[in-house]
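Please decode residue identities from the backbone states below.
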């Protein structure tokens, strides 16, 4: 039995648009979601840490950075510390020397007491978990 479904995802600065297209169903029956983008979520988490007066540690993957980058700069301007793994720091800028000169500490380990924020554009496990209560599973084809 073949799975003729396609999961199409468009990740933008503000939203992640999801379409689960099934060749066996009319297009109007396709599962569609508009969710906050990962960079918007990370930006809000950094802002919440800033409002609480807490330092942050960014880890995970390189991703689109718009909201995340702006939140990092505001965090530093507020006099708070930003720690990041090398990979996650690339979300803010690809020049690590520039990041260090702006105050970001590149490290593999989170210091005690910081708010850890994972960076990743797409979390398929989370998406699958959101769809599961509706008896919708993710297909093998993702675009």
């Amino acid at each position: 039995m073949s799975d003729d479904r396609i999961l199409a995802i468009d990740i933008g600065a503000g939203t992640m648009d999801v379409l689960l297209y099934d060749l066996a169903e009319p297009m109007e029956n396709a599962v569609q979601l508009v969710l906050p983008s990962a960079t918007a979520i990370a930006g809000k988490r950094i802002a919440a840490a800033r409002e609480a007066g807490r330092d942050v540690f960014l880890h995970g993957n390189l991703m689109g950075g718009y909201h995340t980058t702006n939140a990092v700069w505001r965090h530093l301007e507020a006099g708070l510390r930003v720690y990041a793994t090398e990979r996650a720091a690339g979300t803010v800028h690809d020049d690590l020397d520039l990041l260090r000169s702006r105050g970001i500490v590149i490290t593999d380990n989170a210091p005690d007491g910081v708010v850890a924020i994972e960076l990743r554009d797409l979390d398929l496990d989370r998406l699958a978990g959101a769809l599961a209560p509706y008896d919708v599973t993710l297909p093998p084809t993702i675009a």
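Observation: Strands lie at 5-11, 15-22, 31-36, 56-60, 82-84, 104-106, 115-119, 141-142.
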